Amino acid sequence: MVSITLSVPEELKDEMDKHPEMNWSEIARQAIREKMLILRKMEQLLSKSRLTENDVEQFAAKVKKNATKKFLKAIGN
Q1: What is the mean pLDDT of the chain?
Q2: What CA–CA distances, in Å, run from 38 to 28, 56, 63?
Q3: Are 22 and 31 in contact (CB under 8 A)?
Q4: How far apart are CA 77 and CA 75, in angstroms?
Q5: Does an H or E element contain 64, and which?
Q6: What is the pLDDT of residues 38-73, one digit of tens each?
């Protein structure tokens, strides 16, 4: 197994130190493992996609436009 160095804010480290019973290395390993599983699934889905970056941008613009319309309608504008 290889080692990595992880930087956390001092306040977070102070809180972690209050719980010495926790195996913070194992918790970090699990979090990284879960994130990698998500990334692998996303890569699998994207590898089968025929959408171009332009298609995605156009779709995102439509979603934003429709969301804005719904929001404005909901607040009475």
Answers
A1: 94
A2: 16, 20, 24
A3: no
A4: 6
A5: helix 53-74
A6: 999 999 988 888 888 899 899 999 999 999 999 999
N-to-C CA span, the chain: 59
Q: How far apart are CA 25 and CA 5, in angstroms?
A: 10
pTM (2 decimals)? Answer: 0.61
Which residues contact residue 28 at a Cβ distance below 8 angstroms, ignoring those fewer than 6 apart? 6
Q: Which residues have CB under 8 Å from 44's CB, separation 6+?
A: none
Q: How far is CA 23 from CA 3, 28, 49, in A?
A: 15, 9, 40
For residue 69, the one-letter residue type is K
